Amino acid sequence: MTALLTAYVLMWPVIVAGVLVAIARGFIKDVKEAHKEGRMVI
Question: Of 1, 6, 28, 31, which is least packed with CB atoms within 10 Å of its CB?
Fold first, then answer.
């Protein structure tokens, strides 16, 4: 039971890190595109 609880608790940081990486990739892609087109992101 302890191993399952430990795995459950440790799973969330991995999921959050994956979502953060996906958001950062999209943002970096948008920044590069905007820079190429000569416009501001915001």
Answer: 1
Smallest CA-to-CA distance from 42 within 31, 29, 26 is with 31
What the block records as the tokens of 26 is 């999209």
Supply the pTM of this predicted model: 0.73
Query: Collapsing DSSP states into helix, strand and coil, what is residue 39?
Result: coil
Q: Residue 31: enclosing H or E segment and its boundaries?
A: helix 2-37
Task: State whether the Cα torsion 8-13-14-16 is positive or negative.
Answer: positive
d(CA 23, CA 32): 14
How many CB atoms sit inside 10 A of residue 34's CB?
13
Average pLDDT over residues 8-20: 96
